[in-house]
Design a protein that fits this description.
Blueprint lengths: L3 E4 L2 E4 L4 E7 L8 E7 L6 E6 L6 E3 L7 E6 L4 E6 L8 E8 L12 E2 L3 E6 L1
């Protein structure tokens, strides 16, 4: 199995940047596609970005395209989400997730989830 731990969240002013990290335990990290999702209280979980096992392919939600970048370093067992030009509507709890089923935006295909990290964007 793989355990995922997010970090890097916090409070930032609108227009600013944050970089989230997700550290994975286990020896098969490179076998998993990795994704970021986000969720507001009382709302359904929302897809943000996904990256393929080798890092060669990515998909983004329209709401973050051009502002967020997902990347991975398989040697460090870590996936990142660089968030630029942050907006108030980006305020969410952000979760990383892993799946062996390849790149997908469907949260029900992901087997492993981190605990979440809070991102708050102030105006």
């Amino acid at each position: 199995q793989v355990q995922l731990v997010e970090s890097g969240g916090g409070l930032v002013q609108a227009g600013g940047s944050l970089r989230l990290s997700c550290a994975a335990s286990g020896r098969t990290f490179s076998s998993y596609a990795m994704a970021w999702f986000r969720q507001a209280p009382g709302k359904e979980r929302e897809f943000v970005a996904v990256i393929s096992q080798g890092g060669g392919s990515t998909n983004y939600a329209d709401s973050v395209k051009g502002r967020f970048t997902i990347s991975r370093d398989n040697a460090k067992n870590t996936v990142y989400l660089q968030m630029n030009s942050l907006k108030a509507e980006d305020t969410r709890v952000y979760y990383c997730a892993a799946t062996l089923r390849g790149r997908t935006t469907r949260d029900d295909y992901y087997n492993y989830w981190g605990q979440g990290t809070q991102v708050t964007v102030s105006s």
